[in-house]
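Feature request disguised as a bug: please show the residue count (394) next to Glycosyltransferase family 2 protein in the output. Example input:
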Amino acid sequence: MAGRTIVSMMKDEAPFLLHWIAHHRLIGFDRIVVFTNDCSDGTDAMLDRLEALGEVIHLRNKVPKGGKPQPLALRRAMKLPDVTESDWLIALDVDEYVQINVGAGHLDDLLATAPKANGFALTWRMRGGNGRVAWTDDPVPEAYPRGAPDLFRKGWGVKTLFQPFDDMKLGIHRPTVKGRDKGALLARAWVNGSAKPMTRGFLEGMWRSSLATLGYAHAEVAHFATQSQEAFLRRAARGNVNAKPDKYDATYYAIFDRNETPQSGLHRHAKPTQTRVAQYLSDPALAALHARAMDWHARARAALRAAPDYAARMEALAAAAQTPFEGLDDILFPQPLAPQGKAMVAKMQADGVPDLHIARAVARSVSQMEARRDAADARELLAKGIVPDHGEWS
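Example output, currently without the count:
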């Protein structure tokens, strides 16, 4: 039962499915467990065929009315020996690619950088739309070869590749523990993408890197969260795994459409990945299902373009795409705030405070909180003789 496993949740992902699977099988994942829900494009049928071909394990995630697909799938995954008895495990979405920056770009190369570690907290690298407006069928890593700089703090979420342990509770970013006893977490030897130890504060429950724990030297997760403006509208139409209304709006695009730096780390796998995709499509049954799914998406895009609000929504995204990196603190983005923070924003808006003033106040408050965490993490690491990759610490 041992293996290196990805758990994923999908809905209507047919245009991206084969390339994403091929890439991750190529770099060393030998088991991909996929939960699907409410597919209209045939992603589920493609996964059934891929399962018959031995490439994935596919389960249909029946979500009750009002339910959230992602948490439900994670709970169900916890009951699967194919998941819990893995040697290594990570939860990934289809817009996330594990990118290994050391050696030949294989999981073995990453694991060799910290042979005593039992977890790698891999930080996102947000990858933007690269100025693309219309949909493209090009493979995602080649279509969007630019992304955020290292110090794009808003994009420092992590995905954790880890060895399963007793009493773990799966999460989309990292596992936690069942109950309140965090001893099992604190016993973990987790490192970052530069093979440097993560801190106690992270182990106890954080899901984002700090300036002191940020590390991209050996591995990262390329997160293609926005893509072209038209692709982003299609993503919004599909919904999201946590049933959050209006998550994918122009503000989200303005924040995460980051294209400041060239990012070619995934390109080393372009040809072998495409070769593997071609091998998949040499199966007549899968090829027919894929063609049918692509036709479905072509019709969906045609309907999108014919919608009366299409032009206005595209104009909003075009304006959002002009947001400079240094102007991000001027954008009010309450989505990631805790309920108390969101309530404060709502009250300020009700009191007539301009959004620009609220955004800057939120940015100052968050910056102060993050600076405290940065300093605490740095003190802990420096006390152990570990120098963080980023920041000036004394």
